[in-house]
Design a protein that fits this description.
- InterPro entries: Phage_T5_Orf172_DNA-bd.
- This protein is of the alpha+beta class.
- The chain contains twelve helices and 19 strands.
- Helix 6 (about 130-140) crosses helix 8.
- It starts with 5 loop residues before the first helix and ends with a strand.
Length: about 400
């Protein structure tokens, strides 16, 4: 069976305008009646005439197109009026879109994706269209990514962000926008849009672009933007991975109606441990608490989290209307490369590895806070080699 494309659909509908008149009903008249009978059965089942609309089922929209055509052709109305016990040919309950001849070809094709025609107008089956097949072939036709080492750190980071809750996955919306630097999940793999080629216009006057897409298994594909959109939409597990945009997490002072969420605190240890003593000026504990910071540190010398030593408060930042856990994960992700690697023993002799101590100068922490305030922090990480925040390479 051949795939149903727009030309075939139009040809099929145009047949309604040319019923052959002979002694009895012609084959084309029988097809018209059979097609109308399907619409009547739809009305009986759903309680309303088929309607146009993006939220409607593909077959309902096909029936709506067919009904529009039948109502527009006097020959069809004459043939079907005696059979129209539901008043479909003259009723006003069909929410009509533009006439069939004026409909956007590409839009109609998009809505009919998944429907296939047959020799009989009454027979509709759910099969893959040519567009779907092309999209699947393009996604599947991958080659080895020769410069994958450039992109590998991006995949490592995005996986860490997902685990930490800094990024989330969202269902892909139909034909949603795709931009350079975005991550998606398609075919069970994380895909990164590394390049977006020059935009061009398709034969249906729709905009499209050629993409270079890198996958986390070290392969890549040269795929059309609309093919990736279709593949994501058709994939039940297809997802968009959100950007870790924190937005304005802090405020200099609370505004009316703001809900206090907690405090970011920066502490310095008074421990005499050789590693701590040697790096005291740049070694800081960065945490988030919903309570009073002073009370939080009152028993620091008994808590391995505080290196079993007293601490002093170096800086605090109040925050409002924000998820404390997510914020703390974001801060720790930024400074992950400077995390202190030290093992101490608790009061019972058990080894403990504190995770919230970082070898970062205070002025860099202040800078990070400012970037979190204005929402630009998502493009930076801390580089201990230069003791500064640096932009994340997007290749």
């Amino acid at each position: 069976m051949s795939d149903l494309d727009l030309d075939e659909l139009r040809s099929e509908l145009d047949d309604f305008a040319q019923p052959e008149k002979k002694g009895g009903r012609s084959a084309q008249e029988e097809r018209i009646i059979a097609g109308f009978d399907e619409i009547q059965r739809f009305v009986e089942q759903h309680g309303h005439a088929p309607q146009h609309g993006e939220d409607r089922d593909i077959f309902e929209r096909l029936y709506a197109v067919r009904l529009d055509r039948l109502r527009a052709l006097e020959e069809c109305r004459s043939l079907l009026t005696p059979l129209d016990y539901q008043g479909l040919l003259t009723g006003a309950d069909v929410v009509s879109a533009a006439p069939v001849d004026a409909m956007d070809d590409d839009e109609l094709l998009a809505e009919l994706e998944g429907a296939a025609g047959a020799s009989d107008i009454t027979e509709l089956r759910h099969v893959r269209t040519s567009a779907d097949k092309r999209a699947a072939e393009e996604i599947a036709n991958r080659t080895k990514c020769e410069d994958f080492e450039i992109f590998k750190p991006l995949f490592v980071q995005v996986k860490k962000d997902l685990d930490a809750g800094i990024r989330q996955t969202r269902p892909f919306q139909t034909m949603a926008e795709i931009k350079k630097g975005e991550f998606f999940i398609v075919g069970g793999q994380i895909a990164y849009v590394a390049e977006v080629g020059e935009e061009f216009t398709t034969e249906y006057d729709r905009r499209d672009s050629r993409l270079r897409v890198i996958y986390d298994n070290g392969t890549e594909s040269d795929v059309l933007l609309r093919s990736l959109q279709r593949a994501l939409h058709r994939d039940d597990a297809g997802r968009r991975i959100t950007d870790p945009a924190a937005g304005p997490l802090f405020a200099g002072e609370s505004a009316e109606g703001d809900l206090a969420s907690g405090t970011v605190y920066v502490l310095r240890s008074k421990s005499d441990h050789p590693v701590v003593a040697a790096n005291r000026d740049v070694l800081h504990k960065i945490g988030v608490t919903g309570g009073d910071v002073v009370k939080r540190i009152v028993n620091a010398k008994l808590d391995p989290t505080f290196l079993l030593s007293d601490v002093e408060i170096i800086a605090t930042y109040e925050l409002y209307n924000i998820n404390r856990t997510r914020l703390e994960n974001l801060i720790h992700r930024i400074f992950n490369a400077a995390r202190l690697d030290i093992e101490i023993k608790d009061r019972f002799g058990h080894p403990v590895i504190p995770r919230e101590w970082f070898l970062v100068p205070l002025f860099v922490i202040d800078e990070a806070v400012e970037k979190i305030k204005d929402g630009t922090i998502t493009g930076f990480v801390y580089d201990p080699n230069v003791a500064a925040l640096v932009r994340i390479s997007r290749a």
